[in-house]
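Page 42, continued from yesterday. The earlier attempt failed because a stray header line got pasted into the input along with the sequence. Redoing it now with the clean sequence only.
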Amino acid sequence: MAFNGAWKIDRNENYEKFMETMGVNIMKRKLGAHDNLKITIQQDGNKFLVKESSNFRTIDIEFTLGVSFEYSLADGTELTGSWNMEGNKLVGTFTRKDNGKALTAYREIVGDELVQTYVYEGVEAKRFFKKC
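This time it went through. C-alpha cells are written below.
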C-alpha cells in the first residue's frame, strides 16, 4: 500500500528523448515535459485506481494486477497490457496497438519519491514524483 496517496511531478530524466522515440511530435514533447502531472493512487489488494491529472487531461484508470486492459497515453497512443507486482515494484508490460512494439513501465517508491521508469526501443526515461 506504499503507493497510496497523491504524487506531484518533481523532475524528469531523459523524458523528452523517450517521447521522441515514441514518435511524439516536437510541440507535444515540449508541452509533455512540463505537463504538471499529478497522480493519485488507491490500492485495495490487487485492485488499483489511478487518477492522472495534468495540463492536458484528467483520467481515471482502474486495473487489477495481472489482468490485461486498454489505455491511451496523453498523446493518443493506444496500448494494451497489464501491471504486475514484482517485489515492491509495479511492472507494466504494454504493447502499442499501432505498431506492436513493447513499452515497459515501472513504479517504485525510492526514499520519499515515487519513481516512474519507462523503457521503449532501448530508451529509458524516469519521472520523479513527490508526495503531496
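Notes: The mean pLDDT is 95.
Reminder to self: strip header lines before submitting.
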